[in-house]
Each structure stands twice: as C-alpha cells, then as structure tokens.
Amino acid sequence: QVQLVESGGGLVQPGGSLRLSCAASGLIFSIYAMGWYRQAPGKERELVATITSGGTTNYAAAVNGRFTISRDNAKNTVYLQMNSLKPEDTAVYYCNGRTPFSSWGQGTQVTVSS
Questions:
Q1: How far apart are CA 76 and CA 31, in angstroms?
Q2: By three-state DSSP, how is residue 50 classified?
Q3: Is 89 within 8 Å of 82 (Cβ atoms)?
C-alpha cells in the first residue's frame, strides 16, 4: 500500500520561504509522475505542481515562478520549495501521484501571515 508522509510546513511571514518534503513508500517511486496539491479552508483541493519521472515540471499559474518542485528518486522523496509566499498560499499541502493514488497522507499545514 502506498504511504505518503509530508513534512516541512509551518507559520511564515509574507515574502518568506518554506521547503516541503514528502517521503513515499510502497511503490516504485521512480516511475511515477508526482504532484503537490493544496487545500485551503472551504475550498477544493487543487494541484499546484507536478514532476514527471524524467524531471519535467509544470506549475499552476498561481505559483509559477515562486514554487519549485523536485525529486530525489534515491530517497523516494519529492520536494516543494516555496518562495515569496503570500497569505493566499495558506493551505494544507499534500503530495500524491499526478494521477492520485487511493490513499493520501496527513498533509502539512502552511500558514502565511504577519
């Protein structure tokens, strides 16, 4: 069974940075395109960034130029570097496959506030 464990969230001031990590197990990580998703209070979960098995990345318009997704296949880990954070980035962040697996991790809370 796929297990995903997100970490690295926290409280940060506007303009600050955070780096999220997601450790995956129970799958052949290197062959899957992965993604970072977020869900703000009262809103639908949205896909913000993806990375293919070959390292090609794609970003939602709201985060393009500020967020960077990367992966380390040796560590079965995907990362999200978030810079120039805005209050509207406040959400619970999750990783999953670009086509989501049936199970989700607990997510990591990111709060951007002064």
A1: 11
A2: strand
A3: yes
The amino acid present at 105, given as its one-letter code, is G
Give me the sheet containing 77-82, strands edge to edge: 3-7, 18-25, 77-82, 67-72
Please report the pLDDT score of residue 111 as a whole number: 98
CB of 24 closer than 8 Å to CB of 44: no
In total, the chain counts a number of residues equal to 114
CA distance 113 to 45: 21
Radius of gyration of the chain (CA): 13
Among residues 35, 21, 22, 27, the alpha carbon closest in space to that of 2 is found at 27
66, 82 Cβ separation under 8 angstroms? yes
84: left (phi over 0), alpha (psi -120 to 50) or beta: left
Compute the distance between CA of residue 36 and CA of residue 77 in angstroms, rounded to an integer. 12
Encoding tokens for residue 15? 């303009």
How does pLDDT run across 50-71, given as a tens digit for each residue? 999 999 999 999 999 999 999 9
